[in-house]
Amino acid sequence: MRLVVVGAAGRMGRMLVRAIEEEPGCRLAAAVEQPGSLALGEDAGLLAGIGRLSVPITDDPAAAFREADGVLDFTAPAATRRFAETAAAAGLVHVVGTTGLSEDDLRALRGAAGRARIVQSGNMSLGVNLLAGLVRKVAATLGTDWDVEVLEMHHRMKVDAPSGTALLLGEAAAEGRAVALSERSVRVRDGHTGARVPGDIGFATLRGGTVVGEHSVIFAGAGERIELTHRAEDRAIFARGAVKAALWARGKPPGFYTMADVLGLSDL
């Protein structure tokens, strides 16, 4: 499968290049960066630390996509929307690991999925998506007298909060309770907030150091507590998951998919 990495000079971009080369049946077709990037013209393999691949980094996604079967995208919301249109025009698989997507961004991706196979997730790891399935199940089993809190910590350089993974887990809890997260989400507590409202899903965000990613979903009842936790120790898990998603989606019809579909966890 011929894959393009967009944002190829970034930390995740370099990991995606390495993951493609490690996966049998895949090869790097092109690598894309934004205009003006100092990495333009550099060999993507050398930049990723795996040796020369004879794939120079370009700022022309349309030309890159014409020579590919899929694109791996861990960039930024505005860039992802542009890439979605270009990928849809070429009929590609578009794997989206970009975080910080708004409802408008997701609507745009679903629109593009009429012509492309889009796999979108706030987290591409097997462990996190299994955790989301467990959260959905526990939330459906327990009543609203059990409080739900999502706690996450990431490195000091992360720019969006709550993390895409925290929102993925919050959505899983909301789905389990058959409510809309947008109506029951509590993102900030400060000052005299009053008592906690039953049924709300709370979020707490920590930032510091070099933490790759830690997420816990806490179900707190009267006299007992359940905590489900995932700790990411290597960003390579996200890159490997993205390549797995691209391979899975290659033979699928156009549509909007998630990692739960890729991993067969939709019924959990």
Explain what the structure shows.
The chain is an alpha/beta fold. Helices cover 37% and strands 24% of the residues. It is built from 10 helices and 12 strands. Strands 3-2-1-4-5-6-12 form a 7-stranded parallel β-sheet, sandwiched between helices. A 5-stranded mixed β-sheet has the order 8-9-7-10-11. Helix 4 (77-90) links the parallel strand 4 (70-73) and strand 5 (93-96). Helix 1 (11-22) packs across helix 9, helix 4 (77-90) runs parallel beside helix 5 (103-112) and helix 6 runs parallel beside helix 7 (164-177). The longest helix is centred in the middle third of the chain and has 16 residues, at 126-141. The radius of gyration is 19 Å and the shape is elongated. The mean pLDDT is 95.
SSE sequence, one letter per element: EHEHEHEHEHEHEHHEEEEHEH
Radius of gyration: 19 Å
Strand order of the largest sheet: 3-2-1-4-5-6-12
Which range does the strand content fall in? 15-25%
Helicity range of the residues? 25-40%
Query: What is the structural class?
Result: alpha/beta
Distance between the termini: 30 Å
Shape: elongated
Total strands: the figure is 12
Largest sheet: 7 strands, parallel
Average pLDDT confidence is 95
Report the total helices. 10
Uncertain parts: none
